[in-house]
User: What shape does this take?
Amino acid sequence: MKAAVIVFPGSNCDRDVKVALEQSIGGPVSMVWHRDTDLPPVDLIVIPGGFSYGDYLRSGAMGAHSPIMKEVAARARRGVPVLGICNGFQILTEAGLLPGVLMPNAGLKFVCKDVYLRIGQANTVFTRLYRPDQVIRLPIAHHDGNYFADAETCKALEDEGRIAMRYCSPDGEITEDANPNGSLGNIAGVLSANRTVLGLMPHPERLAEAALGGADGRAMFDGLVEALAA
Amino acid sequence: MSETSPEPRQITPDIIARHGLTGEEYAKILDILGREPNITELGIFSVMWSEHCSYKSSKKWLKTLPTEAPWVICGPGENAGIIDIGDGQAAIFKMESHNHPSFIEPYQGAATGVGGILRDVFTMGARPVANLNALRFGDPGHGKTRHLVAGVVAGIGGYGNCVGVPTVGGECTFHGAYNGNILVNAMTVGIADTDNIFYSQASGVGNAIVYVGSKTGRDGIHGATMASTEFNQDSEEKRPTVQVGDPFTEKLLIEACMELMATDAIVAIQDMGAAGLTSSSFEMASKGDLGVELDLDRVPQREEGMTAYEIMLSESQERMLMVLRPGAEDMARSVFEKWELDFAIIGVLTDTGRMVLTMGGERAADLPINPLAEASPEYDRPWTPTPASPPAAAIPPGDDGPPLESLKRLLGCPDLASKRWVWEQYDHMVMADTVHRPGGDAAVVRVHGTAKALAMTSDCTPRYCLADPVEGGRQAVAEAWRNLTAVGARPLAITDCMNFGNPEKPEIMGQFVGAIEGMRDACRALEFPVVSGNVSLYNETQGKAIPPTPTIGGVGLLEDLALAVNLAFAGEGQDLILIGETKGHLGQSLYLCQALGSETGPPPPVDLKAERGNGDFIRAMIGGGRITACHDIADGGLLVAVAEMALAGNIGARVTAPAATPDNRDPRLYAGWLFGEDQGRYLVTTTDGDSLLGEAGKAGVPAAKIGVTGGGAIELDGQRMTIDELRDANERWLPEYMAGP
Amino acid sequence: MKATVHVTLKNGVLDPQGKAVRNALGALGFDGVKGVRQGKFIELDLVETDPATARENLDAMCRQLLANTVIENYSIEILE
Amino acid sequence: MKATVHVTLKNGVLDPQGKAVRNALGALGFDGVKGVRQGKFIELDLVETDPATARENLDAMCRQLLANTVIENYSIEILE
Ligand SMILES: Nc1ncnc2c1ncn2[C@@H]1O[C@H](COP(=O)(O)OP(=O)(O)O)[C@@H](O)[C@H]1O
Ligand SMILES: [Mg+2]
Assistant: This one.
């Protein structure tokens, strides 16, 4: 399977996700500079976490307009899976590849900690190794992860099974206490209509190895490899 | 708007004084130059001879610290210290203060402190892999404290998170003596290949001097702001003393430097820190015994009409100076342009031994380099030793209260309360190598791509240092060593940040000399040399000095990270073993502070021989897989340490105090056992207590079984308190405090 | 030519920043504050000298970058 | 009574936000942008009905909370 990680000047989880992907793939992942306009043929595109252009105006706003994003959008339209993690999620919403926006956390502070997540949609290339309603633990690390979309959009996401995961308590309850950033409906990750684009705030690459304190993220990468290794 | 600030032609005594130069120092300047300096030259002298750049009050004493060990590649004198961590790799690290700027503007002051220390490390070719921060705030009840905590923590996070370097540890304590002068000490640890380390010594007459990074503005022109009010009224508005950090640019600068460092283009490189272009160019040339010629018109400038004085003294952030190999200029330029950073050849190395600056076709300065560096003042300031403390206040019978209530109070006091509110604002996991996150004794960060890990910690107990600077200095080093040991690491070396008051006062100078003496002893006995550091003096407001605060940043190595342990109880029914001797020393303990509001008595003495023996034993046992959890006993004493282990593991413990029955106990002895702060001690758990006690006996290390893990509470001699209740006390204080008005 | 852009949150979009400011003002003893909304204020210095063209360009800048029209409104002022 | 406050960086203070926005606009093909400064825009709804008192209160709010006067300037407008 071939995967590419898009690197913006301010990306800082690019190496992390490359390491995690390579662990699952067992082979190299290519890194593509944001200013490049052509993308090698790949089975998966990852937009990693970080601060793409400093993110001083709005997270992801500038990244969404970088030259490579036109090509990413074109591939996404053709059904190539695109995974946006954290800043990657912010970029995907700013680029219009996913609905909604990620506003500053309700607490107005950066939050880095482990959270529990309940899988909402397990029937995707990203989440196929999780069970529906399975509770997993992953870290978040963001200042702007407060998901917002208008009521109509939210309803559509709900009805179409496009909510990939929600923040929950350790035993799977969707509660306000378990919501780390004020996201509408505790939404932590959303899918495109055809379920091949996933944006999520938590970092699966940070807990993909037992030595780092947990491996719940690994199933996402293993699942992708299983699904995409032709 | 292209007017330039009118600059004085005449150097008056007032201008000299405003530059912080004494009459004697000015006489030396006249002597070196053989003429009067112009204002730019005076500015250059003033920053080069400032306390910050010249270490004039501290040099004599710093020289007495041990700086060598077989694993030390480079000790103090470069941008950061370097130690060998095997397999062709080195750890490069340093700590630096940003106290004053953080008090004026907490967010930007702390943020730029992080930026500055990062540059010190990556300028040497190391990729930064971890940040730590040691914070000392005033009394929580003081009007400014909350605002300062909020700003400083947000600033440290704002910078480090964006740059993408995890902030993995630190300290955060409170004391009224810091009300008017907080301390913000930031530390960075980086990793480099030993055959690709970069130094600041310039070489190669004719080689280009290159400026990269952000443009130069009128930021932080220190002496200048003061000096300039005189010749320009709206200078305050024009020359903000506060520097604003741009972490995104720093991130670009790191990546661009790393990219260029992978080639052979760089001959020498130096970040522009305090005193910016002046000290960086000066030091590079001075180390290489060369001269420099700079054309200041070529310096990328953010504002119009900047003078030579302003350009040379600006402290704009995110800038570097390099000497390039001939012919490498174009390649280097393309790297920096790729990262959208300014790149300018601003001068050339000469063999004249002089610093010659031109601007607008005119000579702006012409100074001899070596005489200026050699004549840099060094003072043997008078000092008086700190008098010994009278004995600690007695605990009146009945005043000590039920011990578990005291425990709860201690766990919720500002110094011991959980600092989760702080570290959750720091991305402590980016780079995906953080093995032990904040909350333990030392953070553990994997050496990327290997099975090894670095352990790191920052420590100092100002209460101890104030009561007895020598013992306090010794203790700070020993505690850092102990914290590294407690995770199983081999302590390798330290960096320090010496925060003191006004050295012109003999009693303050005495604190400094004392702390150095204590540190020296401990560094020697523990083979734990100083490889880098920073001195911050004049930490005073209205004549009131801060407590002497020699912050120690320690780094250690774990050969196999799978063997690292942490403080969390790992299972039920395990034996809880106390290592080290307990005398019940209560002087300067947190218990006395909390129970009696009394900071009295001498601090606990550090027996360096026992320290070494106990620590070496612990490390051997961890390395042999004999220990399931380990925690050193520090502030708050034994019972607090037990509780911290219980909270971390979410498993309780039953603890039995030695021999005597509770009712015939001398309250002082009992409190001393539970809350005394005797040094050199650890608590460990093991599945086989008897065998561990046997090993300790063989090694001649004091050890005793004091309890067993299990349940959901701490039980002590028939009393009990649930972990949840203790956790609530421990976790609640800081967030509640910060939510206040 | 100088211009300014105001970017504000649309009605109905929750404004945590504004809410926090309002609470903080309350805590400082300023009670008569019924509501606070926080937005961005951007000052631009343009080469363009024709106001109409400038406005057109600014409008494109706002739509493409300066504002996220899912949640934000913007207004442009040409200052001359 | 409605009022607005503009908070802007003092002259000479580095504005990383503004710099980044300017670069991004350039990358999008808007070249005629010589400079960008980014500030805050705060809309307040006050109980107070007397403009002079309101202005006085707002001034205190700015100094104490809304602006960081070490690096920022502020200006107040009473909108009625
Ligand atoms: N400012 C801070 N930043 C990050 N971590 C912090 C900070 N302050 C405290 N911590 C973390 O909280 C834990 C407890 O700190 P401390 O009581 O100083 O530890 P110790 O007594 O072992 O030196 C440590 O893991 C430390 O790294
Ligand atoms: Mg400790």
The pocket of adenosine-5'-diphosphate (ligand 1) is lined by residues B 133, 135, 167, 169-172, 419, 422-423, 438-441, 459, 483, 634-635 (CB under 6 Å).
